[in-house]
Design a protein that fits this description.
This protein has 186 residues and is mainly α. It has a single domain, classed as Rhomboid-like (Rhomboid-like fold). The protein contains 8 helices and no strands. The radius of gyration is 17 Å and the shape is globular.
């Protein structure tokens, strides 16, 4: 009999923590989501504000939001964790959470931001660089950037919804930059 393998510790832990945050949100009627798993402008004296700068990527507005992010995370994340290692991937996720959280607080602090979309788009851009050689820019990176960024810019300008398109774009830019950084280290 074969055993289950916890093959991608960072990605699977991220998934489980997000599932926990979603369940806790349901149990607390979203009080825990507002308190810990979403980010908005806060007083520098508010200790939980610093937690929310990272915790917002674990929060989701509902099952549909959760599933949309987690399916992509579970498909794209494990090969990246295998290629770059758990520490490097965790650092990329933390960097994306922090930068998108700070950017959101500075620009749109009156509304809450939550969800793993910025992290997912960071992973998508990082994956488009995964097979690149030093000194070369892969065509996949250009195509993904043009299609993805074009879609997000269009949606930001012409579609009125509750989607944080700028944070998606920020996540993609962070992923591309982080991918170039990781590539330069090897």
């Amino acid at each position: 009999m074969k055993k289950l393998q916890y093959n991608s510790p960072v990605i699977l832990s991220f998934f489980l923590l997000s599932l926990f945050a979603l369940a806790l949100g349901y149990l607390t009627q979203d009080r825990s989501t507002a308190l810990v798993f979403s980010v908005y402008r806060f007083s520098l004296k508010d200790i939980l504000g610093y937690v929310r700068l990272f915790g917002h990527v674990l929060g989701h507005a509902g099952w549909e939001h959760f599933l949309g992010n987690m399916l992509l995370l579970l498909v794209v994340g494990p090969p990246l964790e295998e290629k770059y290692g758990s520490r490097a991937l965790l650092a990329g996720i933390a960097l994306t959470a922090l930068l998108t959280g700070v950017l959101h607080c500075l620009l749109f602090g009156r509304v809450a931001l939550l969800g793993a979309s910025g992290v997912v788009f960071m992973l998508i851009m990082l994956s488009s660089l995964a097979g690149a050689r030093e000194g070369q820019i892969p065509l996949t990176l250009i195509l993904v950037a043009v299609l993805y960024l074009g879609q997000e810019v269009f949606a930001a300008v012409f579609v009125e919804d509750n989607v944080a398109n700028l944070m998606h774009i920020a996540g993609g830019i962070i992923g591309a930059g982080y991918g170039f950084y990781l590539r330069s280290r090897n």
